[in-house]
Specification:
The structure holds 3 protein chains of 3 kinds. By secondary structure, chain A is an alpha+beta fold. Chain A has helices spanning 4-14, 16-54, 63-67, 70-77, 88-94, 134-140, 192-204, 232-242, 251-294, 296-304, 309-350, 359-389, 393-398, and strands spanning 58-62, 85-86, 99-109, 121-125, 149-152, 163-166, 169-176, 187-191, 218-219, 221-226, 246-250. Chain C has helices at residues 48-55, 78-88, 104-114, 121-133, 149-161, 179-194, and strands at 3-13, 21-32, 37-42, 63-68, 71-72, 89-92, 167-171, 198-202, 214-219, 222-223. The longest helix of chain C has 16 residues, at 179-194. Classes of the chains: A alpha+beta, B mainly alpha, C alpha/beta. Chains in contact: A-B, A-C. At the A-C interface, helix 1, helix 10, helix 11 and helix 13 of A face helix 1, helix 2 and helix 3 of C.
Amino acid sequence: MKGFKDLTVKSLLGKPVRTAILVLLTVLLTLTVLDGSLTESSLETGIDSLEARLGADVMVVPYSATTKQKFENIVLQGSTGYFYMGKNYVDEISRIEGVGEMSEQFYLASASTSCCSIPVQIIGYDPDTDFTITPWVKKSYGKKLDTYDVVVGNDLNAFVGDILYFYGVRVKVAAKLEKTGTSYDTTVFTNADTIKELIRSSLELKMNDFSDVDPDNVVSCVLINVADGYNAEEVTNNINLHVKKVKAIQTKEMISGVSDSLSGVSSVIGILIGAVWVLGAVIMLLAFTMSVNERKKEFAVLRVMGASRGKLASLVIKEALLIGLAGSLLGTLTGLVIMIGFGGLIEQLLGLPFLLPSAGAVIGYAIAAVALTVVTGADAAAVSAFRISRIDTGVILRGDN
Amino acid sequence: MYMKRSKKALVFDIILLVLSSVLTIGVKTVFSACEKKPDGMWMSCHWAEQAVFALGIALIAMAVVNIVLNKTDLKRGIALAMVPTALITAFVPNVFIDLCMMKDMHCHEVMRPAVIIISAVIAVAACVYAIIVREKD
Amino acid sequence: MPLSAESLTKNFFRESKDSNCFSAVEELSLRLEEGTVTVLTGRSGGGKTTVLNMMSGLLVPTKGRVLLDDTDIYSLTDKELSKLRNDRFGVVPQGQTAIHSLNVIENILLPYAIYGEKTDDAVRNRADDLLQRLDIAQLSSAKPAQLSGGELRRMAIARAVIKKPNFIFADEPTGDLDDENTKTVFEFFRSAADEGAAVLIVTHEECAAEYADRVIKMASGKIV
């Protein structure tokens, strides 16, 4: 026995059930705080990422694509689909006042891939005019995309150099993109030439939903940045007013729906964290008070043997710190395993863009969660520690006669 | 000679049996791979599920043998053999056997992390077992 | 160096018809000399334990001083007084006073553990010797819950004297003991005094007088 440290450990081990319950409680507290705040921050990172990926002020799609919510589902929910409008609309749109940068995109969904029957969304972009996808692709692939090269989203189980077949056309994976936490993670990107080949091939195989499409004369969607001095709402209204059979959508409005549900989820998480924290603090306060009351006489005996008030207080605090540390480290480990292992599942359950913050930030959250738990435990114990340091030794020792 | 069964060893035997059973039963139920394609064909992840199932049966067998056995050295040997078996199991999904195309599918989101986590815990527990369970206990 | 109490008074608050103030000890002076055994007897409620607690630094007197080396021990800070108790005082309190999470030998060595002092072979040998003399050697690694009242009492005695204190205070140390063990314990305190300690024993046992240098009788908070 080397000193008080041993006494702390031994008194904890002497009451294994109480200690186990307290450790479990601190595990739960840390877990809730860590995973709650990580989920919240992942949702925020996710929506920032979605905003960055949409990257345009206005999107114009064929009117038919909006009636069935097709377009929004592709962008926000990760469902697959495609639709086309004649190239003549692009010229019409370009003449609308306030339209600045403009780039076309081409959509297609694969019927079957090398391994699974789940269709994959394929988006073709024009590298010469594109301003949304190129900056993102550049982060993982410095060169220009060749024909029959594709870049794949981070959640696709394909790797650089893999060969994929879409409608019988052989394409090579040139790069894998960084994770965005959005539906773009399961999308395949190609340049305009490649996707036109794929559309042509799908038409030849009679596997395309449309039969009367000329790949060289259609686009799926036009992305627009408004020119200086104009606002997106104005331009959107202008397009909808002057160009028939298309629908212009402000990206800000598309995201606002996502933002609304995000703030809902955030407040639920906030309430949950608060409730668990209060509950944990109260239970710990009671547990330490009870444990100290139970051992009042033992503390009096320590005092008789020459333990100062400070020593007694530190004994109680040390017990709390030990429990807090053990529980919060275990809780952090479990919390990280859950978040990293099942992040994808959480993303699917919430149906919102979800992107874990950087490793540094995750470590920061973990440290904060541990600190919060340990401090809560120590504070709960401090009340008992103060009381025990004030005990009247003489009175307690006379108590049982 | 009758030797008093070590309590510590028994606790570990039971933990390992429970974990192996959870892995084996779970991979066929709660965290199974993706379902059959509409055309009735299995996707590749199904074969990963089968492999995990087979390895899980092996782990259960070893855990059962350890519960029955009463020789500490032998028990430790079997626990040591469980370590690589569990590690191989952890690497089955997507390393030894490819899973599905998209990571938002069931086999990636549920089966893979569950198999990795449970296998890792089995490996660690078996390792600890081999180290701390001694004759004198 | 003696420990002397100078006109100690202790008043307690107690609801009563006449006055809420109850005087447990009144203007009591007592001197504990090295190498002597002082026995304090008297009827229950006579203030014996209060005197013992005040002299052993556990209870602040309402009036009066407890002098050691010309210093009033109650003028010390809590930290200093605690260290003093640990180093120079050994107290056997009333009742059961074991730390339940520690075994017998750990309980006995606890006074060393409180300030993180090392317990070398000499200390361990002394502990073994004490266990032997108090006839609880076979219980060294038992937990307090497995011990009888008398065994716990002897453990508390060993714990009080493990650091060879200058002053030993024992409050009813033979309360749970049979005649034979009572004798052992009193002999034990006698020899501690012979080795140089000042011993103060509060007891009802008549036979304590045989081992004492001085027997003081108390009634209603005063020496009679």
